[in-house]
Amino acid sequence: MKYLLSWSEQTMQKILKIAHREYIETVKTKAFIIGLLMTPVIIGAIVIINGYVSQSISGPRPPRRIEVADLSKELSDEIEASFDEYNESHSEKQILLQELHADENAGEAAKEKVRNGRLDAYFVLDKDSIEGAGRIISYTSGSKMSDLDLVSTVENVLNRAVVNRRCRLSDVSRELLDKLRRRVPVERVDISLASDEKQRRQGEQIIKAMVPFFFMFLMFMGIFANGQQMLTSIIEEKSSRIIEVLLSAVSPFQLMTGKILGVAAVGLTVMSLWGAAAYATANWQGLDVRVPVKLLLCFAVYYVLGFLLFSSILAAIGSVCNTIKEAQSMMMPISFLFILPIMAWPLFVEQPDSALVTAASFFPFLTPMIMILRISSSSDVPLFEILATMAVLALSVLAVMWVTARVFRTGILMYGKKPGLREIIRWLRYT
Amino acid sequence: MNAVSLEKVSKSFGSVRAVDGLSVWVPAGCIYGFLGPNGAGKTTTIRMIMDIIRPDSGTIEVLGGYSAERAKNRIGYMPEERGLYRKMTVRKVLAYFGAIKGLKDDELARAVPQWLQRVDLANWADKKVEELSRGMHQKLQFAVTVINNPELVILDEPFSGLDPLNQDLLKEIILQMRKEGKTIIFSTHVMHEAEKLCDCILLINKGKVILDDRLRMIRSQHSSQVIRVELQGDTSFVETMPMVESVKSDGGLLEITLANGDTQRFIRELVQRANVISFEIKVPSLHEIFVKLVGADDAEDS
Question: Does the pTM of the predicted model rise above 0.80?
Answer without folding.
Answer: no
